[in-house]
Design a protein that fits this description.
This protein is an all-alpha fold. The chain has 13 helices and two strands. A two-stranded antiparallel sheet has the order 1-2. The longest helix is centred in the middle third of the chain and has 32 residues. Helices cover about 75% and strands about 0% of the residues. It has one domain.
């Protein structure tokens, strides 16, 4: 049980890392045509995330790989059940990457604006669909006794999950706007700050609405919160982070605001994961059919071997991430080799 718990925590940590890091470049993409008005500003916007975006997506790949290695039945059920949704997410992420690389291949305003629109659209879709996926996992997915998904793609587009999708969109937009406060200057920074406030209030309101709605759609989560201290600790830390973010935005302190925004994302996900533990894929059909860290894990030998590899690999990824962010600290600048 100890190894299963460690891997449960590790998968969640990797997903939190992805939500924080790729969250800001998805948010920058969502705001690309709103904060950046001219071609120069859009180049600055892209250059702000240029050194980071592909490294940020490594966290998603690593999280998916960890899920596959440690909990293969969960990986098989979720990725097969959400197949069309995952294809749309991949399409959106590929659209973002292609747009960034292609926009400056031709010296034409129409050409660049076309790719700018695709970049923003891809960011919007990815940010929305990630939340829709989480919303379905919160309310439970239709699983049979063998752990097979029995629902449909359109069944995933239920009102509660769509609300979670909009919440995710607001969260990533907030993270991206606050990141632009760190990287942008002058009028572009002023517009980013205005959007940071809009996204912040939308995030808080949607979070409260989502919690209230969860009493009906995801009651099992609240039942599990009873008698547990860790989830409530993360809830308190979440609201402390929200208050800190409000304070730092008010004081126009960009770096602390970005840290507070990141903490709000981390503690929100951590509270959900701590409350759901050990459930990874809850069944809406019957709780007996749910896939957990204990009934859907790999063998002890596999978990031990992968843990050794993770203890070597994760620090390397963390070290590389810290080094890259240190090297490219400071304001975004136009460079000949930039976007």
């Amino acid at each position: 049980m100890i190894l299963q718990t460690i891997w449960y925590v590790l998968v969640i940590v990797l997903l939190i890392g992805y939500a924080i890091l790729d969250g800001f470049d998805l948010g920058v993409g969502v705001l690309h045509l709103r904060v950046a008005r001219t071609d120069t500003e859009r180049r600055l916007s892209l250059n702000a995330i240029g050194p980071f975006w592909d490294g940020n997506e490594v966290w998603l790949l690593t999280g998916g790989g960890a899920l596959f290695a440690a909990f293969p039945p969960v990986y098989a059920t979720v990725f097969s059940g959400f197949y069309l949704a995952m294809i749309l997410v991949l399409f959106a992420l590929i659209m973002r990457a292609i747009s960034m690389e292609f926009r400056s291949k031709v010296e034409s305003p129409r050409w660049r604006f076309f790719w700018d629109k695709l970049f923003s659209l891809g960011s919007f879709l990815a940010a929305l669909l990630f939340g829709v996926a989480v919303g379905n996992l919160m309310r439970g997915i239709p699983l049979d006794a063998s752990g097979e998904f029995t629902g449909s793609f359109f069944g995933l587009l239920n009102p509660f999950s769509l609300l979670m999708g909009v919440l995710s969109l607001a969260m990533f937009t907030m993270q991206g706007a606050v990141f632009l406060l760190v990287k942008a200057e002058d009028e572009m920074r002023s517009r980013a700050k205005a959007w940071a406030w809009k996204a912040f209030y939308a995030f808080v309101v949607l979070h409260v609405v989502g919690v209230v709605w969860s009493f009906a759609e995801a009651r099992w989560l609240f039942d599990r919160f009873e008698g547990m201290h860790l989830p409530w600790l993360f809830v308190c830390l979440f609201w402390a982070s929200v208050v800190a973010l409000w304070f730092f935005l008010k004081k126009d302190r960009a770096l602390p605001a970005f840290a507070a925004s990141s903490a709000a994302i981390a503690t929100q996900i951590a509270a959900l994961a701590a409350g759901a533990f050990p459930v990874l894929a809850p069944s809406r059909t019957s709780t007996d059919f749910s896939l957990t860290a204990f009934n859907a894990s790999s063998s002890e030998l596999t978990l031990k071997t992968m843990l050794i590899l993770a203890l070597i690999g994760v620090p390397l990824v963390l070290g590389y991430t810290i080094w890259i962010y240190w090297i490219y600290r400071g304001k975004s600048r136009l460079e000949p080799e930039g976007y």
